[in-house]
Amino acid sequence: MNTQATTLLVIGGGPGGYVAAIRAAQLGIATTLVEGAQLGGTCLNVGCIPSKALIHAAGEFDKLGHYAGKSALGIQVQSPSIDLAQTVRWKDGVVARLTGGVSSLLKKNGVQVVTGWANIIDGRTVEVRAQTTAEPLRIVCEHLLLASGSQALELPALPFGGAVISSTEALSPPSLPKRLLVVGAGYIGLELGITYRKLGAEVAVVEAQERVLPAYDEELTRPVAASLKLLGIYAHLGCTVQGLTAKGDAVRIRSAEGEDLELAADRVLVAVGRRARTEGWGLETLALEMNGHAVRIDDQCRTSMHHVWAIGDLTGEPMLAHRAMAQGEMVAEIVAGKRRRFAPAAVPAVCFTDPEIVVVGLGPQEALQAGLDCIHAMFPFAANGRSLTLESSGGFVRVVARRDNHLIVGWQAVGRGVSELSTAFSQSLEMGACLEDVAGTIHAHPTLGEAVMESAMRALGRSLHV
Ligand code: FAD
Ligand code: NAD
Questions:
Q1: Torsions phi, psi of 370, nearest 5?
Q2: How remote is the CA of residue 181 from the centroid of ligand 2, in Å?
Q3: What is the mean pLDDT of residues 159-167?
Q4: What is the tens place of the pLDDT at every residue in 418-443?
Q5: Confidence label for 385 from pLDDT (cuts 50, 70 and 90)
Q6: Which of 6, 62, 193, 410 has its Cα between 20 and 30 A from that of 53?
Q7: Is 0.85 surpassed by the pTM of this model?
Q8: Does residue 241 have its Cβ closer than 6 Å to ligand 2?
């Protein structure tokens, strides 16, 4: 058997794995990365990037539809149409450009990339079935970094196949379904449900909990629920899915009151969460300590086995690309001998619905539960000039800070375009900003960012514009 040796062996070329490999190679560590599918992982190929590309395309198309009627702006457009196949090709082009970039960066930095599925033999040995060679390749390493990501959860009552699809298929639709039923009103269900609605499909959502985006606080999700109504997306809340009807053209659901209902659908998107990818590649041979279904790690991303590290979705929530990347960069630096610890002030979360939601740090309730005595204040976009010029007046920015020293512990926002505010929120938390720091910073006018400054001013009891 062909055998190679390396210092750091990374399994998985997603945002966690490829960032770790690039950083390690930059630091002079001999690094090999094994990827069974495409470089870029879920994020670049079937996650963050393609979903945001389709969200953008659907938003632009929807805007034109909005102007085709009587537009307050005076813009007139004759009945717009969309060539979905071209939209998907454009999205694939964006993905190809980024995955090609990852490949070039790995090469430029001297990472050896092996294409094939890795199978763990022991904590220092991995076998790879490369696509090109019949004989497996054996790689021995000093450090093994596990970054195999996650996969969509399947519902026993609605297994994937035929009309029942996961986000992966939903991101490359061969055609637009007339009626899409979305199971799960979380990140994926709502981001893609809204996208399909804007592209012209009839969309309904089934959610087991009593409200949409149940992981976020209700005040933040209320504008999203209102937007779903405006878009004509009906949310069946507190309902469980029973399965497809015998003809396969409808889904049977049961309400909390035990009432049965059939919802007609020619495609069903199941988006009820993701699960760490722990099976089918020999991980169990390491008998690592687990945290539920995910691999347990400490604050340096060390697993329970010496010199075996794990990052990203494999290690559980929050399953976000920027967390995976930050962990990957840190592990590379530790392997290179630097002293690092994963202790961010917060991991930001953005939901790219319409309107968008941003959460960084603690909300008022979470602060209370953490035993902190906090004040909080919100500034509505209805009082923000930039927001009105963008035809948007819904939503708000909210700040949470300690009562005693005004240290900011959390930011939340909901509104059109607020995803870009996440940078300011994260930086203020990471730099230990107080309300006075943000209130005393000149924010350019007219921008959505002024709502950030105004919420801090309001928390200090000296609001100017509300
Ligand atoms: P992954 O990206 O899943 O990469 C793991 C890689 O490992 C894969 O390429 C896989 O093929 C490979 N692999 C697995 N096992 C083996 C093996 N045995 N041998 C070789 N290779 C192997 N997050 C955000 O932060 N923002 C977003 O907007 C966002 N949008 C999303 C939208 C969708 C539709 C989905 C599904 C996810 C989204 N996410 C988003 C989540 C984000 O994609 C993940 O958190 C991120 O990709 C995790 O990175 P990772 O490196 O841990 O794993
Ligand atoms: P999710 O956890 O965000 O939402 C799943 C939803 O399905 C929840 O509201 C849950 O109550 C509901 N649900 C669970 N079982 C159900 C059932 N049997 N019937 C009806 N509803 C049910 O999961 P997701 O939307 O699949 O996304 C998976 C992960 O991918 C996210 O947790 C996130 O980490 C990542 N992601 C992030 C982004 C982003 O950052 N913008 C976008 C997409 C995905």
A1: -80, 5
A2: 15
A3: 97
A4: 999 999 999 999 999 999 999 999 99
A5: very high
A6: 410
A7: yes
A8: yes
Q: What is the residue-averaged pLDDT of the chain?
A: 97
Q: Residue 4 pLDDT more than 80?
A: yes
Preceding amide of 446 cis, omega within 30: yes
Q: Which of 398, 388, 372 is nearest to 454 (CA)?
A: 398
At 142 the three-state DSSP class reads strand
Rounded-to-integer distance, Cα 219 and Cα 233, Å: 20
386 Cβ contact partners less than 8 Å away, ≥ 6 residues apart: 445, 446, 447, 448, 450
pLDDT tens figures, 127-149: 998 767 778 999 999 999 999 99
- Cα separation, 67 vs 380, in Å, equals 26
Domains of the chain: 2-55+85-152+275-335 (3.50.50.60), 164-272 (3.50.50.60), 349-459 (3.30.390.30)
Q: Take residue 456 and report the two structure tokens written for it.
A: 């801090």
User: How far is ligand 1, taken at its centre, from the CA of residue 149, in Å?
Assistant: 5
The CA distance from 201 to 188, in Å, is 17
Rounded to 5°, angle at Cα 267 from 264 and 270:
105
Q: How far apart are CA 114 and CA 274, in angstroms?
A: 26
Cα of first residue to Cα of last residue in the chain, in angstroms, is 72
Structure tokens at 33: 């990365």
- Residue 135's pLDDT is 87
pLDDT at 67: 87
Arithmetic mean of pLDDT, 148-171? 98
Residue 319 near ligand 1, beta carbon < 6 Å: yes
Nearest ligand 1 atom to alpha carbon 152: 36
Joined together, the tokens standing for residue 362 give 């603690």
d(CA 150, CA 167): 13
> Which tokens sit at 256?
């909390």
> What pLDDT is attached to residue 1?
80
* DSSP letter string, 444-461: PSS-TTHHHHHHHHHHTT
Q: How far is the CA of 119 from the centre of ligand 2 (A)?
A: 29
Q: Which of 98, 146, 92, 95 is nearest to 119 (CA)?
A: 146
Output the residue whose Cα is nearest ligand 1's atom 26. 48
pLDDT digits (tens, 9 = 90+) for 305-317: 999 999 999 999 9
Place of tokens 């991995």: 126
